[in-house]
Design brief:
Distance between the termini: 29 Å
Strand order of the largest sheet: 1-2
Shape: globular
Order of helices and strands: HHHHEEHH
Largest sheet: 2 strands, antiparallel
Number of helices: 6
Strand content: 5-15%
Radius of gyration: 19 Å
Structural class: mainly alpha
Length: about 150
Amino acid sequence: MGRAGEDLVGVTCQTVGWALRRAELAVQAVKEQRLRGLGMASAHFSLLIMIHNEPGLTGAELARRLNVTPQAVASLVARLEDRGQLERRPHPRHRHVQELHLTDAGRDALRSAVPEIAAIEQRITQELGPDDASRMTALLHRIADTVGDD
């Protein structure tokens, strides 16, 4: 048990990691609020936009990219498939692997969600200014690359 005033190895609410988490939670909360009005969760948007950007991804590939379990992806995929926004197609070479593709309903869902997400991005960029926003994006990628090497 720690004692009052005990040094906790520099872990405070002022660290880079803490600031990243705080920013992530704030952005995530706004995304959830905005997308809820469209009947979509932020996780659904993330999955749909990834498949839009890389059609044919498998569930395992999505799980790695989203940093979630394959079971979590399978659950999301099933939900989006039930909504008619996503379809599975057999992999051309591996018969036990299925690729994921958007349906017209999935593309329509993304079309309605993108302006909401873009508005959040615009608000951040407007507050930071274009130069700082660009610098922040580069720094965040650098942090992800640095930590991701471990």
